Amino acid sequence: MSQGLKRLGLLPRNICVAILVAYRAVISPLYGDVCRYYPSCSAYALQAIQQHGVVRGIWLGARRILRCHPWAAGGVDDIPEPRERLATNRAGFVLAHKEQ
């Protein structure tokens, strides 16, 4: 597959990344540290989408948000290990080549 097609295939993933980065920069600071888990729910969703894609990433993020309630024990909750880890740039966008 050519680099151009790989980049085009990453477009939906990077659109979701841009939305979450904007949320984390603008809206999330208004709430403060209220998440019972580490990383926060928005950081978890961001990592899940970056490494697992849009569909599975949104599924994992939604499951995490449903687990985050006042009676949850909380703690460290990392995303499941992806089959292949993809590289991201400093802004968080997923790149067309694998992480070395």
UniProtKB/TrEMBL annotation:
Coiled-coil annotated spans: none
Gene Ontology CC: plasma membrane
InterPro entries in UniProt: Membr_insert_effic_factor_YidD (IPR002696)
UniProtKB keywords: Cell membrane, Membrane
Cellular compartments annotated: Cell membrane
Main location: membrane
Membrane topology qualifier: Peripheral membrane protein
Pfam families the record matches: YidD
Top-level taxon in the UniProt lineage: Bacteria
Function (record text): Could be involved in insertion of integral membrane proteins into the membrane.
Alphabetical list of NCBIfam families matching this protein: membrane protein insertion efficiency factor YidD
Matching PANTHER family: MEMBRANE PROTEIN INSERTION EFFICIENCY FACTOR-RELATED
Family: Belongs to the UPF0161 family.
This protein's name: Putative membrane protein insertion efficiency factor
Organism: Agrococcus pavilionensis RW1
Organism placement in taxonomy: Bacteria, Bacillati, Actinomycetota, Actinomycetes, Micrococcales
